[in-house]
Specification:
single chain, mainly alpha, two-stranded antiparallel ribbon, 9 helices, 2 strands, gastric inhibitory peptide receptor activity, glucagon receptor activity
Length: 396
Amino acid sequence: QKNTSECEDDPREQQYGRILSQLRIMYTVGYSLSLGALLLALGVLISFRKLHCMRNNIHMNLFASFILRAVSILVKDALLTLTLDPRSGSSAVMWCRGAMVMMQYSVMANNYWLLVEGIYLHSLLVITVFSEKKYFYIYLAIGWGAPLIFVLPWITVKYLYENEECWERNMNMGYWWIIRSPILFAYLINFCIFIRIIKILMSKLRAHQMRYTDYKFRLAKSTLTLIPLLGIHAILFTFVIDESVPKGSMLRLIRLFCDLLFNSFQGLLVAILYCFVNKEVQSEMLKKWKRWKLGKDIGEEYRHTHSHTPHIKSGSVATGNLPLSSAVPEENRRLVVSYSNGTGRGKPSKSRHTLQFTLQPLRGATSHASTMTDDNCLEEQVQYCSYRQEGEETSV
């Protein structure tokens, strides 16, 4: 056996340690970038109500599982480094174990939400009509509930039989299979779904009698899009387990590199593909930007022309605080000011005068109240009217 000084002087051990340090830097950068992109993507999907549908609800839960995974891994690494300090107390170890438990749960939940994505996509292609609301509760149970069935027994055996340090070491690999086996099961099911979806896409593309190059291109595009969504890359090294290859071997390092690279940057790739380059999301963001830009331009123009606004003494209108509807491009609101000019009550007389102005809404005006042009006049009272725009709700 080797003592500590011999291990420190072993060049192979030093080389292996440097490689692991570089891999840690790589996946820390990957998880950090993924975390930022996923938080932004999740915020976008939540803020736009028109994007709330079954597909995007599943995407949001998938994003949340990626966020939980990234946060738990980054926190676990920080606490694991803290526990190596001799001055750290038992509380640091307990926090580190809690972070390790959260990491195991989030990794499994992330893989099961990838499985849910595969199941839902397969259902869209195979099942003609199905109750989305009913199935969504099943998806929630699979994505967030199923991992608890396996994580709780793992916590129990670790506490009873391997209650050492931060629970990061697997001295008995049989306990580790409590976590590994359900993840492998999810990988295999998703791989079968992936093959099935590719066959369906091939048959549908052939039915449209496309040109050979277009057919191959669209099939390749669909396949490449499905790979990060369903986590198919994980199947490549699933069976290259730690027990089957010696420590420091080239195969083990290749497997570790690919595993850490894909897992850390997968969240970033999913956020880009299913949010930032999604045409529905881009359309809603463009509409939001145009509304904001238009409101800003209208507000500046209103402030510029406000000093030239005419004042009406009889039946005058205070134009500064009108509740205006939200403006749309190249459309203005019309204000019709009517007064009876002393003709008495009842029906409007022929001498009725009508003044019509074109006003610009104030910046930040968000009221959706829009009225219809009214021809009625009341003595010494002003009727505020504006035409109703297409697609707006009317509230009086």
